[in-house]
Each structure stands twice: as structure tokens, then as C-alpha cells.
Design a protein that fits this description.
Blueprint: E1 2-10, E2 19-26, H1 36-46, E3 51-55, E4 66-73, E5 76-78, H2 82-93, E6 102-105, E7 108-114, E8 119-123, E9 129-130, H3 149-157, E10 160-164, E11 167-173, H4 177-181, H5 192-195, E12 204-219, E13 225-236, E14 241-242, H6 246-259, E15 267-274, E16 282-291, E17 294-313
């Protein structure tokens, strides 16, 4: 079995920055698609934070405008992730004749559209939930918390928030960029069974550090004045630091807009810069739309640049 692939650096237009992504196409002409075990093996072989498989539409649906995808980290399939969604969207939209307007993930269908050359905008699935417990509420602190007293205190007191079931984050606010630079990789793994509420105990739970760096007013494409909040972030789990994390960025922005009730207008724009400390600066845009004090829409935007293409053999 041979599968064509491309790699992209996502949330950047500069090669070798942003977050690398493998985009693997599953041709409709195959006698059978790759198995779950085969897709997992491919993701391990690429050894990137995520690998996304795009299934071509069946031969009897050649004009379909949706594409079903599978998203894998190196050791599991996950329901949704932001940087694979944007990378896959840029790849698909680079062929305008295909007319693709929807990516179907395990978390649900995601409408996508071009947002300029090499850029895409995606309507992110969201089923947000603020969990009752914080790390401080556990019988004993989990291994791998920071040895820096101020960071450790912030980790213990940070809220835990899910953007969808299976994608949860400890949202750790820090006071300065100097404090952000002190965050380090460690064997911390979010204790899902102890920390998350009933019905939510699955998937990933990672640390997402963030610092407020400013607020401005910007003019949206429709001419409306929109508050723009600027943030610097880092996402660190037990295996690695992630250069750009769309799901965590979406979770944080929803938390600020809804759980903290900071958003006073219907729309609020967030501009997040991640990956600076590891030399892979990434630029992520999230826009949250509120309706009757609840989140109505979440849009994630970013650029991606192609780095490689080839064929893999299974």
C-alpha cells in the first residue's frame, strides 16, 4: 500500500518555524484503507506532535465537498486538534477545484475556508467545560510540577478546562515572560481519573502556560471594531513541548471569554504567540463569538507552509 504525504509547518508562513504536521492522503482507489494499527505506526514513524489522514471521497461521491480525517499523536488517536485542522485545510484549499468546505473529525464536522494565501479559518467544535477540581484539590500533588515556587503555586491553583471531551488543559497564568521562560518539560501527566469531572475522564490533559501581553482595538474584515487580546503561551506535556496548539489556544480563549466573563461585546479576537522559547515561533488567531452569555462560535485561523512531499509505503 502506498500513500502520498506532505508535511507542513503550521501557524507560520516561514519554513522551519511553526508546528510541523504530516498530512497523509488515503486514496479512494485502495482495496481497503489502512487499519488503525497501521495509521498509528505511520504516526510513530513521522514522530511529530500530530499526523492527519485525509480520506478521499468514495468513487460514487466524486463531487463531495467534505473530507473525513483521522488525527493521531504518536501513541493514540485524538478527536480533534487545531494545528492538524489548519494544516489540512490549507492543503485541501490549495486545490480550489476540489471545492472542499468541511473537514469531518471525530469531534464533529468543521467548516473551513481560505483566509488569504496559504491561510485557513476553521469553525472549531466546542463543548466547553470548567472542571470542579484543581491540582491543589488532589490528595497529593502529581509528579512533575515545577520546582520554581511561583510556578508551582500557579500550577496548583490553575483551572482545568475542556474544549471538547478528550481535550483538557490546565490553564496556568503567569505574571511575566520571564516566568514563562522558566517553565520546563517534566514527567507531569494530567491525572485524568482524579482531576476531571464524571463523564469527562478520557483523552489528554496537558499544561498550557500563558501570559497577557496587551490589548488593542482592531478593525475586523466587516469593518466592526473588535477588542484584540494578545497572549504569549507554551504547551508542555510529559513527552515534549508543542510549538503551536490550536485546541489549547481555543480552550484558553473560551475560558477567558465565557468562564471569566471578560468578553463584553459579541466578538473578541485573540492573538497568541507560542513556540518562541524553542525557536519555532507560531502565530495563532482565535475569535470567540458570544450569544446570550454563552459561546456561540469559535473560529481558529492561521497560515501553513509546505515543506516536504513524498510517498510512504505500508
Amino acid at each position: 500500500m502506498e500513500l502520498p504525504f506532505e508535511t507542513y509547518d503550521v501557524f507560520t508562513d516561514t519554513p522551519y518555524r511553526g508546528n510541523p504536521l504530516a498530512v497523509v492522503t488515503v486514496p479512494a482507489s485502495l482495496p481497503a484503507p489502512p487499519t488503525q494499527a497501521q495509521k498509528q505506526a505511520v504516526a510513530r514513524e513521522f514522530n511529530l506532535s500530530e499526523t492527519i489522514f485525509i480520506h478521499e471521497p468514495p468513487a460514487d461521491q466524486p463531487s463531495s465537498t467534505s473530507r473525513t480525517v483521522d488525527i493521531f499523536v504518536t501513541n493514540a488517536e485524538i478527536p480533534f486538534a487545531g494545528h492538524p485542522t489548519i494544516g489540512a485545510a490549507v492543503s485541501l484549499l490549495s486545490n480550489p477545484g476540489a471545492g472542499v468546505d468541511t473537514i469531518v473529525t471525530k469531534a464533529g464536522p468543521i467548516p473551513v475556508a481560505a483566509a488569504g494565501p496559504g491561510a485557513a479559518r476553521a469553525a472549531i467544535p466546542h463543548n466547553v467545560h470548567l472542571h470542579a477540581k484543581r491540582l491543589r484539590d488532589l490528595p497529593s500533588p502529581p509528579a512533575g510540577l515545577s520546582e520554581v515556587p511561583a510556578l508551582r503555586a500557579a500550577e496548583l491553583d490553575a483551572p482545568v478546562y475542556s474544549i471538547v471531551r478528550g481535550m483538557s488543559f490546565v490553564l496556568i497564568e503567569l505574571p511575566s515572560l520571564e516566568a514563562l521562560a522558566q517553565a520546563t518539560q517534566s514527567p507531569f501527566t494530567g491525572p485524568v481519573d482524579e482531576l476531571l469531572d464524571d463523564g469527562w475522564r478520557s483523552g489528554l490533559c496537558c499544561r498550557f502556560y500563558w501570559v497577557r501581553t496587551g490589548t488593542t482595538t482592531e478593525t475586523a474584515d466587516d469593518g466592526e471594531a473588535v477588542e484584540a487580546v494578545k497572549l504569549r503561551t507554551r504547551m508542555i506535556d510529559a513527552l515534549c513541548e508543542d510549538p503551536a496548539t490550536g485546541s489549547a489556544s481555543s480552550a484558553l480563549c473560551c475560558y477567558l471569554s465565557a468562564a471569566l466573563a471578560e468578553q463584553k461585546a459579541p466578538r473578541r479576537r485573540y492573538e497568541l504567540t507560542q513556540g518562541v522559547e524553542m525557536g519555532r515561533e507560531s502565530n495563532i488567531v482565535v475569535e470567540v463569538t458570544m450569544k446570550e452569555d454563552a459561546i456561540d462560535q469559535v473560529h481558529l485561523s492561521g497560515k501553513a507552509v509546505k515543506i516536504m512531499k513524498g510517498t510512504l509505503i505500508i
